[in-house]
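Predict the 3D structure for this chain.
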Amino acid sequence: MPSTDPRILRPVLVNTFGVARAMDELRQKANSTGEMWRLLTERFVVDLDAVATLLPSEEPETFWLPARA
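Done. Predicted structure below.
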């Protein structure tokens, strides 16, 4: 995450209603869940628990090692 300038005030979203409204506004710009996280944290000060409640969790793709012969 880029270091943000502390002198620039960002809106604070501390409940799921505010986070949901922000997510609706950003939905066209975000191509993935990770992109949505990035956009939210760059533009707002967010309650991460509220974001985690609204965004579906992404399980990492399983990477299988080749079998030994």
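DSSP finds three helices and two strands in the chain.
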